[in-house]
Design goal:
With 357 residues, the chain is α+β, with helices and mostly antiparallel strands. The protein contains 11 helices and 15 strands. The strands form 4 sheets. It has a 7-stranded mixed beta sheet. Bound molecules: 3,4-dihydroxyphenylalanine (DAH).
Amino acid sequence: MLDQLKQLETEALAAFSVTENMNDLEAARVAFMGRKGRLADIMSQLPSLSNEEKRAAGQMANEVKAAIEGAFAAAQSRIESAFAELNAERAWIDTTLPGEEPGLGHVHLTTQAIADIMEIFSKLGFNRQRHPDLDWDYYAFESLNMPKEHPARDEWETFFIADPDKDVVQMGELGKVVLTPHTSNAQVREMQKGQLPIRMINIGKTYRRQATARHLPMFHQFEGLMIDENVSITDLRGVFDFFVKRFFGEGTKTRLRPFHFRFTEPSFELDISCTVCEGEGFVNGTKCKLCKGGWLELGGAGMVHPNVLKAGGIDPKKYTGFAFGWGVERTAMMRGGLKMDDIRLMYRNDLRFLKQF
Ligand code: DAH
């Protein structure tokens, strides 16, 4: 039995000295010293020995146990410091290496256009005001000379907001709640502030029931409103020209085409000369792919209808004004001479597309 104990000690010390991680070390410890391990196995012979032999075996067993425990502790600290060293190596930073530059982003095409638009109009004293894109029927339609059930509303098919509890469209004193289809809802809201003269730009999100390659259900518009004494179509024309020349380039020509809107009288569609063929309608003898006959339509405008002024608490006999409303995405694309096959690319967050602007 004494020989067995000595043998056990030699084997255990050898096993501990080659373990490389805590799991293996623990497994070796259990194999030698565990309740059902090799030492316990040897010690189970004890009862069959004489008293003298028992004493000698007991003493030897204690010495072997101490030696093995010592070897275990040594192996444990060896493994621990090896891991600490490895970690330190991993965490080490070489400050002399060239850094990895994080990619610099830039603002979205739409945001760029909004900033440029605002910069130009602010030179003429227009201020950006914020008006809601979730609004009452009254501001989106009724106050703009579009009574309930009027067919003019059909053009602006929109999203009405339902009361989640009752599953019916929410109603209030000012009608239904609507995701506004145009930024014109800002007009009467701005007038109701009661401060004249007005030179407002309202840029916001607008919503329409459309989702095709050419139409987004959400897009942006910017709405201009100028109200003062003696404001005339000439002023509208001047402001329009000023903007167009700065935004699209000095050589750009403008045109007002008669049109009809309920909230302006007279009303116009505003066109600019095509940014690709420069108003010629042809590029190297072939028809321009962007425009129709040299002109691009920018948006609507007109002299504010007396009924709209009245809704805003303004005396139409004393004050006149003009308003306009254009799509931001459209305006931005026209500047780049872009004809996108699929306008939904604008909001798909594909960096390969966005990085081009
Ligand atoms: N709200 C019109 C639209 O979305 C655009 C518009 C036309 C705005 C004439 C105006 C305006 O302010 O005077 O199509």
